[in-house]
């Protein structure tokens, strides 16, 4: 049985007419601490049924554009094979003129989607929200590990990184600190112009990848590698609104939801974030 995002009337779930196509990718093959990200897509979709679908700020109901949720990808164990499959599906959606959204799954599911968008848009920038820089060239004998996502992204696109507060010394040689906006500068108010500075670094076409551990664990405890000192809801949403207003966002993913059995806060935030981003995209 296919789970859908939201309990909308069937006319808004039709794949032939829906502007938005969501692809769940329940993969957890390379995570290295808390397991369970493969349950993330189902948890997000289940939480979506409890959203209010009228956006007070934009005075709109984006679901009327049509939101189709594909059957979950049958994930192979190998992350490189998975990346090829995600890339193929993403390229098909882009070629069909749909707006693609990937829900994970751990962060390695983003690699194929990023490659598809970079192939489709020659001037692409990948905007990463994350606690971790993910710039290892290889980790645990794989170049497609979740710790290598942005190393793969910078091979095919420009990158801008937001919310970073954890990295390894081996990643520093691959890091352009002029394109990184660290959490300690953002959250402590040490760089009040960070949003404008980050926006200036983005090209016209932008793909957004959001690892939910960019949020402080007080907001999202249900993630695979919770890192203290993270961003809050309005810091992230206000910057996203700016990006959607001034750049052409080609698609996005939300990854690393690791649902907790007795705490649905993370699941609901992830669903709300997805819907808010769609509202920002289709606010015209």
Topology pattern, helix = H, strand = E:
EHEHEHEHEHEHHEHEH
Query: How much helix is in the residues?
Result: 25-40%
> How is the quaternary structure best described?
single chain
N- and C-termini, Cα separation: 34 Å
The gross shape turns out to be globular
Could you please describe the fold and organization of this structure?
The chain is an alpha/beta fold and about 280 residues long. It is about 30% helix and about 15% strand. It contains nine helices and eight strands. An eight-stranded parallel sheet has the order 2-1-3-8-7-4-5-6, sandwiched between helices. Strand 7 (about 205-210), helix 8 and strand 8 form a beta-alpha-beta unit. It is globular.
Spell out the key features of this protein:
single chain, 284 residues, alpha/beta, eight-stranded parallel beta sheet, 31% helix, globular
Q: What's the helix and strand layout?
A:
Elements: E1 20-25, H1 40-48, E2 67-69, H2 79-95, E3 99-104, H3 110-120, E4 125-129, H4 149-153, E5 158-164, H5 169-172, E6 180-182, H6 183-187, H7 194-200, E7 205-211, H8 233-246, E8 248-255, H9 265-281
Question: Brief overview, please?
Answer:
It is built from 9 helices and 8 strands. By secondary structure, it is an alpha/beta fold.
